[in-house]
Amino acid sequence: MTHTQAASAAPAPSPGTSRDGAASAGAVADDTGRLARPVAPATSRRGAGLGEVRVDGGFWTSLLEVNAGATLRHCRDWMERLGWIANFDRVAAGTTADGERPGWQFSDSEVYKLLEALAWEHGRTGDVGADAAFEELAARVVAAQDDDGYLNTCYGHAGQPGRYTDLSSGHELYCTGHLLQAAVARIRTTTGPSATADPLVTAAIRAADHVCREFGPGAREQICGHPEIEVGLAELGRALGEPRYTAQATLFVERRGHGTLAPIALLGPQYFQDDVPVRDADAWRGHAVRALYLAAAAVDVAVDTGDDELLAAVERQWTRSVERRTHLTGGMGSRHQDEGFGDDWELPADRAYCETCAGIASVMVSWRLLLATDDVRYADLVERTLYNVVATSPRSDGRAFFYANPLQQRTPGGDLLPDEVNPRAEGGVRAPWFDVSCCPTNVARTLASWPAYTATIDGDVVTLAQYAPGDLRIALDDGGALGLRVTTRYPHHGYVRAEITEAPDRPVTLRLRVPSWADGATVTAPRAAGAGHGDPHTVHPGWTEVRRTFTPGDVVALDLPTAPRLTWPDPRVDALRGTVAVERGPLVLCVESHDLPPGADLADLRLDPSVPPVPHDDGARVRARLVPPPATPAGRPPFTSAPPAPPSDTTDGGTTDNGTADVVLIPYHRWAERGPAAMRVFLPIR
Questions:
Q1: Residue 418 forms beta bridges with which residues?
Q2: Which residues contact 554 (CB under 8 A, 6 or more apart)?
Q3: Buried-most residue among 12, 36, 402, 554 (CB within 10 A)?
């Protein structure tokens, strides 16, 4: 079942939400709606607020609806079932010494990410059910806070290790960072002075003050093994206008890279990014999520303190890491042992880890860099990662998820526990919950805030950074608003029509993004007032803009070529030599064993690159050959001194007379929806 089909099968949305995700009468007020966005840097360029964008139909609406109608409750039910939420009740009741605490030491963070998701969902739709769920859950969290502001259910209480006794692995500050981000979401989606009086916000402020006392200048000169507190402090500082939090975030960023964390067995300081100071590093390394959360925080600190050197360092790291350490899907992380980055060009398809949380963290970094620099390449990577990592993780019903996202699955996954905690992060099937279940709640908070990533605003310049059908009413910095009705079937079709529904009586600029793959794109824009619309003209990848005094009814139309295309790996990627992939628009495609002729083995498939791929439904069809494997002597390693034989024109059934077959490829985000399957993104050509 596709994501689009899933919308009709998903549970009805909670009260306050229409089927298309539009806000009902309970939605947040206009000013709060403009402010309701995850990232709010101290720059003139900002992202759209949730109240400024209404997504209506298409690819992302189904995902947002399923997230609201199924995933949020699914996450809460699992955490309730496993006792992760009850950990807060035990701390509040003083019963932590009575029995073993369930969950990993970082399970508090999953509760905080769910709170953040509920806050954004309420801000997006005005859903009173999401708001009530937030308040009920927040009350249990707040009750567990200590008098001095410390809030954690794994350390510091009867029968538990002492506070901050394991900064390498304890995740205390990491959990606090997610608490602060939940509070930021609450502040930015709550109208009026009640925002800072909210119980969870009050608890977050007390927790942040505690961190500043414990780890500020002259106190503990230490850091957390998992970055996150830095992002939380920076964004809370912005939300409250509190420079102390920005200063503490800066201190944490600068302390990293000096080898202060105690080592973990088999892992060096690189795992924590504690081997090289942030401003000196040339590429991301170590644990991917840690590296990317740290990079996001470094951008926040650089922008808010005017540190151009630090910002340039993150841009330098982004460039090298994207060019040499990023998979075709936008996924990051090539090693399973440390969930980490590999060396340059180490990008194996079958061992690609590409953790879902790393994809979300990559979006966090690129979005911040886009707001800081206006460089279109950051928006391009956001799109690639959203469609091919974030959208891939949740099953179409929103109740199972990929943790890792490999680009090749040799055999169909078969070890799924359908109603139990799954111990493995890999396996080729989406699981309802994991022993380490960071990804479901991360997906939930990202989808709940997704509309905020669709546009940027800078003065009188409005930029459509991502494409989805719906309505935008953007408050302009110089007064007035620009209203747009976007009509598109993107990503499956490349035509994007933006009709002006409201405009000020002065020239403004509407910019659209032409993706890096869209050679031959055209744009059509209105001529001078009353002169109709011009003819389509070719535009190159990057930003294309139209500036004039718009009137309601004017239309700017972008036509992007979305025919399937072959994509070749860099020859320095050893694991992918002799292969090719197929993309269509922003979507990476793959072959599943479901779509092969009966009895065929995916390992025997060879794509014929001389025959261009053609569209087929939402994917493509390619010409391929099925080549039987060579005979291997029994009991020997799979190597021989004889060169491989040339391909034969005879194959098994399902082929044409000359030994070839037409094979269907589907969007990668849909793989394993029809059941366990072998899968490949990169296909051998000989």
A1: none
A2: 499, 500, 503, 526
A3: 36
Q: What angle do CA 518, 385, 327 make, to 5 degrees?
A: 90
**What is the distance between the alpha carbons of residues 612 and 5, in angstroms, rounded to a whole number?**
29
CA distance 8 to 203: 39
Q: Please, what is the end-to-end C-alpha distance for the chain in angstroms?
A: 33
Encoding tokens for residue 535? 């003819």
Nearest to 587 by CA among 538, 519, 517: 517
**Most confident by average pLDDT, 71-80, 424-433, 527-536, 620-629:** 71-80
Which helix (H) or strand (E) segment holds residue 683: the answer is strand 683-684
Map tokens 């079958």 to a residue.
Answer: 350
Integer Cα distance of 579 and 201 in angstroms: 52
Question: Where does residue 45 rank: exposed (0-12), middle (13-18), buried (19+ CB within 10 A)?
Answer: middle
In this model, does residue 666 exceed pLDDT 50? yes
* Token pair of 379 as six digits: 């928006």
Q: What is the dihedral of CA 338, 322, 120, 43, to 10 degrees?
A: 130
Quick one: tokens of 555? 């239309």
Q: Cis peptide before 630, with omega less than 30 degrees from 0?
A: no
- Structure token digits, residue 586: 């922003």
Reading the block at residue 538, the tokens are 């070719």
The β-bridge relationship of strands 564-567 and 555-559 is: unpaired
**DSSP string for residues in 19-42:** TT--B-TTSPPHHHHHH--S---S
Quote the CA–CA distance of 238 and 35 in Å, as a whole number.
Answer: 12
pLDDT of residue 658: 52
Of 332, 228, 333, 344, give the one whose Cα is nearest residue 283. Answer: 344
Report how far residue 548's alpha carbon sits from residue 509's, in angstroms, rounded to the nearest whole number: 7
Q: Which two tokens stand for residue 232?
A: 């939380």
What is the band of 318 on the pLDDT scale with cuts at 50, 70, 90? very high
DSSP bridge partners of 386: none
Tokens of 49: 């607020």
Q: Is residue 501 classed as helix, strand or coil in its secondary structure?
A: strand
Identify the DSSP state of 263: P
